[in-house]
What does this fold into?
Amino acid sequence: MAARKKIPLAFADAFSALETTLPGRSVPWLSRLRAESWDRYAALGLPTVRDESWKFTNLNSLRRAGIVPTPEGVPALDTVPLGAALSIDAHLAVLVNGVFRADLSSLPDAEAGLSVKGFAAVAEDDPDALEGSLGKIADRDALPMAALNTALAADGLVIHLRRGAEIEKPLHILSIGIAGETPVMFQPRVLVTAEENSSACILESHVGVGDGVYFSNAVTELDVAPRARVRHYKLQNEHPAAFHIAAAAVSLADGAAYESFVLQVGGRIARNEIQIHIGGEHAECTMNGAYLLRGKQHADSTTFVDHAVPNSTSREFYKGVIDDTARGVFQGKILVRKDAQKTDGQQLNKALLLSRGAEIDSKPELEIYADDVICSHGATAGELDNEALFYLRSRGIDEATARGLLIEAFVGEAVEQIGHAASQDAFQKVVDGWLRDGAQTRAKDGDSA
Amino acid sequence: MAATAKTIEQVKSVGDKYKYGFVTDIDLDYAPKGLNEDIIRFISAKKEEPEWLLEWRLKAYAHWLEMPEPEWAKVDFPPIDYQDAYYYAAPKSDEDKPKSLDEVDPKLLETYEKLGIPLHEQEVLAGVAVDAVFDSVSVATTYKGKLEEQGIIFCSISEAVQDHPELVKKYLGSVVPYGDNKHACLNSAAFTDGSFVYIPKGVRCPMELSTYFRINAENTGQFERTLIIADEGSYVSYLEGCTAPMRDENQLHAAVVELITLDDAEIKYSTVQNWYPGDEDGKGGIYNFVTKRGACRGRNSKISWTQVETGSAITWKYPSCILEGDNSVGEFYSVAITNNLQQADTGTKMIHLGKNTSSTIIAKGIAAGRSDSTYRGQVKIMPNAEGARNFTQCDSLLIGDQCGAHTVPYIESRNPSARVEHEATTSKISDDQMFYCQQRGLSDEEAVALIVNGFCREVLQQLPMEFAVEAQKLVGISLEGSVG
Amino acid sequence: MLEIRNLHATVDGKEIIKGLDLTIGAGEVHAIMGPNGTGKSTLSYVLAGRDGYEVTEGEILFQGENLLDLETDERACRGIFLAFQYPVEIPGVAGTTFLKTALNAVRKSRGEDDLDAMQFLKHVREKAKTLGVSDEMLRRPLNVGFSGGEKKRNEALQMAVLEPSFAILDETDSGLDIDALKVVADGVNAMRDPARSMLIITHYQRLLNYIEPDHVHVLVNGRIAKSGGKELAERLEEHGYAEFLDAEAA
It folds into this structure.
């Protein structure tokens, strides 16, 4: 190894500043877990582009953002700003700067089988309930930012889905970031346990209000028991100045099914990472998503599927539209372990570059140690199909409209993969809004030119 | 390689003139083990190199000392003791060598027989006769006159340094700078010989130029350096074959190949690499750490790499193209076969700088036994590469459930008018295919060889005829013992 | 030539052949007919020795030798040829390359020398011509992108080139139009020989109009339900398999 210049640890004083304020601090195992996680983060450091998994996402601007662990002048929030969030009829759990706000939430009746509690409250009142799940799925060696979250998470949600419960009405987690006079960071932690044969649809909206810089470092752990089915859809629509780093770590047991969709449209620098461990046969996972970027946005979609047992299936389909000087990153890895015969893993990322200065970096990856498998991946990058554009224009459609139609159709291929109809509509609205904003900006630019 | 024999001669002849601070009790037929500035000065002096080249070597050496080993490849081996190798051809005393073919491992002879290499060459390859002259040189000498008529220069790089210093100085290290990576850096410091080709403007080289490399002596590293320049409107097809005798210890092969094409020129570079892969238990074998890169400097120029990698304990190799000239074309066709405990991490880089540049990557990886085969490739479209195109197809085939096949592409596009397509698949030979072949009378091994040859066809058909036959046989031989 | 005694065979643990007896003499052409799913194709795979087709009881003697002791390729080299219902595609392997490899494997087992390229091409071209297989088709990767008819003609060509002593034709008529059927049938008929036996597996009687069998057997539920001459095939054409199915059910 070359002598790398030692980079000072980012947020170095965060643990000492916050440790004594964390819920359940008198619980020995919890304190120990936090301390170990902090040590792990401190050893790994804030990832740099020298870390293979972060090759395309540079966090230097986060490092330099002047974020303090205990910020001042953070305004209070009394009403729920729904504008930027998914619009859907659902139970609502609100987090403001990572803190669960029961007063702003409308939670389901636990009698029906879906219980939603604040993480801090559980850590204080019933810490043993966390011991079996907190930090059990998120691999802190592979996810240094998850280690940071585990060390510092002050609140979040604990979601429990009772055996056999089939919950029709989705649960919508709304995470709101508000910046104070000094840039703030927060570490929401969401734990989901789906017992055998249960099913539910969980949505997340990550939005910001006001102006200023905040950094949301979110971690969700999902434990999906045999034959349970979890739909997990996420909208990342953070404030344009915000930093968003999130990891969802998922464990799938026999016959479990997990369907994910992630739409990234917000933030200054954003990364959504999904790690799926398939430990049960005949489990199925689907990871779809889209990233729509403009300005100087940077969004990274990184996924990892670990096929550890035979007879499991994974499907992944991402689409990206990148305008201006934005940069999209897609990294998807399929690991098939030695005994995971009959694995069927397919993955595809397609990106559309709309302007000079836009960039897409794709790294699809297969690591395969079993022979009787069918695995494939594909990646494309390019501009709109000129022939299609010409065809539409030859039918009398003006160029701007034709481009709009084609981009909409391109993104639509991803959105229509969403299995839950009402959720699909909610995401489609966000996509439509993004396309409209783009059309208006273009029209304005046209006027001024 | 012929250069080995030649350098031995040089070492012998230079004995008395030797003047660079070695302790006096050294047997002057040998350069001592290990690498240091003195050894580099010694090598350079043997070759009567100009001062600038020595300086360049020394700069590379200083840099090499500081450089980290590349650690990103998916290969695993104990740290190399660079001081435990000879950097200047240094055969041990004759007692250690087999004295006749009878003493050579029959397995080795069997392999050569299958390759159709005649007996006298087997003797040479087996390390019996180190003073034999090799094909690379005989080709050069046989046809040197004919090539010279057309202004083509084909000689060893040592000769080129003497006879064409202006070309060497202009292009050496211009595609692979000495600080590129640790292995290339070592080569820059310590290269002993290699080939040099210059094809003048408008000349289409009338024959395939070829080199047959071999690692012969024990405990030697081999560091050859190849430099090929195709001037405007010229064409050359270059073939490279590699074999090595079986040795229990690992031997390092850190070669550098640089290709340069000017306007409208084309270089086709084909390799069949069959270095000794080690035995069934992974003992011995060559560490093949090679840096190959071509620069399409000129408009409409083309560089095409074709490789069939069946040998070596570890292959670390990424023949690449830097597509600078507008409309230039880069191609990479690769078959990598690993068996037993072999490890291969190979692929390419296609760097698109010029407008309307295009690249094609076809990579076929076959892993058997307990081996690991990785395709690692980068396609990078820079902002000015208007209208650039890339198509990549990577297919992996696994034979048995103890091996691994991996695909790691990096696809980076910074130009909206560029079109990049990447596809990869991993599968095994289907039971249906095996049954069909067996029903027609083919044994397991024949069936596998046939199906794998079919799987690799797109790549194999890129090879010049005489190489294609050898390569097809190699496919079968490499996979022996992988089924049943 | 071939003697099957009390054959029981399973696939994935499920018994498909349930006590089948069949004797085929040298030079004879037998047809096995039966409804879908009665074990016709299973029988052909058992004879050819496909993995996963397990014989649990009974024996198969081929020219006096226990067939079940032999690997698939050994059986092929002894002269057993299976014309597949669905010939598999092998990308990148030219038809000629495949044929040459197969022919030399078979010749080697007979103690004959490899044919050189010229002899081989001469041998193949003659036969290819009568079957309407063009040089272009021979050069293409084996069966890749072939139409149904081309695949079957190619199977017939392989049979002609390899000159087996016992040929199994598995649903050779499926996917063939009438012209192609005639070409294939002519090819097969040309190979009829006192030293060569054939087993034709078919659902429909149609093929038997072109390749006339000496004996016809009805296979129902893994057993021979009835045997007869070619008139049995005609009866089946008229009345279907209902009577045998009913008998079986009763």
